[in-house]
Amino acid sequence: MGLTSYLRSKLVSAELDNQIDRIRKPIGTLGYDPWGFNNDGMKVGFSLARQLYEKYFRVETTGIDKIPAEGPVLIVANHSGQLPIDGILIGYALAARQNKPRIPRAMIERFFPTVPYLGNLLNEFGAVLGDPTNCAKMLANGEAVIVFPEGVRGSGKLYRDRYQLKRFGNGFMHLAMKYNAAIVPVGVVGCEETIPAIANIKPLARMLGIPYAPVALPVVFPAKVHLNIGDPMHFDNREIPEEQVTERVEHVKAAISELIDKGLSERKRLF
Amino acid sequence: MTDLKQKQSRPHILITGAAGALTQQVINRLRDHCDIVAVDFREQVYLGDSIPSYCIDFNQRSFEDLFRRYKFDGVIHMGRIMSSQLTRMRRYNANVLGTQKLLDLSHKYGIKRVVVLSTFHVYGAVAYNPALIDEEAPLKSAGLSADLIDSVELENLANIYLWRYPDLNITVLRPCNIVGPGVRNSISTLLGSERTPVLAGFSPMMQFIHIDDMADAVVLAYNKTQRGIFNVAPEDWVAYQHALKLCGCKTFPIPSIPPLVPKVLLDTLKLRSFPSYLMAFFKYPVVIDGRAFAREFGFQPRRPLKEIFRYYRDNKKPV
């Protein structure tokens, strides 16, 4: 709490205070929501993310206004770079857009709630334990949710596998269909180069109870990041066999792949 | 004649857990238009001349005499012994075997309405809990600690009787943290302390309901014959350490990793309000969804969190 108050006084301007307060959020009388989002904590997170977004990764975002201004939305992106930097940057892009900003929620690995300080901090900034029930309840609340269907398969992949999409789970599609949520595909280019890993020490990861233990330099490189946002996709809620759900998922995956290729072709340099 | 008729139409209610502050609030709300008999497992409580009050073990044969004598219409079972009280064996006898006896007698004597007060602790605090837990969620508490088994078993019994004897019209209430004047549970003691333990780096989301609102909820539940299991919680949330700050508590952090360290420390310290078997509840959130109860029974809590915490800030040693 003390640290948050200090950071808040140093980082949050009156203008930003107003800007965040104006965004509609389903919170209680003390500024919290059921998942631990905190309006004041979010302001600190927003300020820190701005530094990362504008100064460190110098993000170029195309098509942020394609994300619907209201109603349930699943923002589906490729996952990479060992740490959830991609989620932070997408979240910031949507929260900072000029036209009808939204504060999206990001689904995070199940490992984070067990980490002291970090787990609560991520929750305060809007991150939520990646559980289907959480996602369903948030979509029912009409929120925008960032999901990475590759999960740890994506974030933990090695540098040699960069920009190769791993298997997508079908869970997000079932939720989108059930809650009539638009799916907005996002291609993230640049995060693969932030923490390039050459190997994963699986026994060490098992011992520490973490998803993966990458062999990488202990530094986050300031790679230039491109976020390409695609057109919203809608899928009806017909009773269909799992095979057809997978086809729909592949359709989304193909859209993301195209957006990644677009980002890679637009990218002029790594840093 | 009219007086006699009115007297005959007054429902007879057996209320257990008479020594508890919440039970007494419920009794005060019902006593004007119901004939109440109060019982408690632990002590005899004077509740006025009009309310017979007994200290009785539900497992004793004489307990049945109350059913014969008073011809109850309904039972409100609020006499669950909290996990911080008595020994594990005595709690099992009271909470599990005692409840079974109570429900058996309720069935035998044709009781038409039973309300059972349970707790959100039955869901268990685990790292992978989603927020807004529904009533259908599995009860993981028994896997966390043997000290919480009796609370889960009490619920299981109530559930079995709910389906086996629909005429009992059993409603089970699972409230979030009940706090406020007179409440003597662990969380109320913590909020009322000058210095309160926390697990370093963990501040789970919590829900609090004021004792007056909870008493209203129990009365609403009793008055509408709607079987089932319902969470009871306001739609407002706060992080544990933020709540302590608003209550004017100074915190002292207990090392939280590796998990064995806080367990050994708490087992050694033996703090009544911060026992090791409740440790997980101060680490991981158990946020329940109370919307089904609010919808079904028209419940709307009236005391905001700020008012609740102001009470603890102004009364550092609550009664």
Automatic annotation (TrEMBL), chain A:
<dbReference type="Pfam" id="PF01553">
    <property type="entry name" value="Acyltransferase"/>
</dbReference>
<protein>
    <submittedName>
        <fullName>Acyltransferase family protein</fullName>
    </submittedName>
</protein>
<dbReference type="GO" id="GO:0016020">
    <property type="term" value="C:membrane"/>
</dbReference>
<dbReference type="GO" id="GO:0016746">
    <property type="term" value="F:acyltransferase activity"/>
</dbReference>
<dbReference type="InterPro" id="IPR002123">
    <property type="entry name" value="Plipid/glycerol_acylTrfase"/>
</dbReference>
<feature type="domain" description="Phospholipid/glycerol acyltransferase">
    <location>
        <begin position="73"/>
        <end position="191"/>
    </location>
</feature>
<keyword id="KW-0012">Acyltransferase</keyword>
<keyword id="KW-0808">Transferase</keyword>
TrEMBL record, chain B:
<dbReference type="InterPro" id="IPR036291">
    <property type="entry name" value="NAD(P)-bd_dom_sf"/>
</dbReference>
<protein>
    <submittedName>
        <fullName>SDR family oxidoreductase</fullName>
    </submittedName>
</protein>
<dbReference type="InterPro" id="IPR001509">
    <property type="entry name" value="Epimerase_deHydtase"/>
</dbReference>
<feature type="domain" description="NAD-dependent epimerase/dehydratase">
    <location>
        <begin position="13"/>
        <end position="233"/>
    </location>
</feature>
<dbReference type="Pfam" id="PF01370">
    <property type="entry name" value="Epimerase"/>
</dbReference>
<dbReference type="InterPro" id="IPR050177">
    <property type="entry name" value="Lipid_A_modif_metabolic_enz"/>
</dbReference>
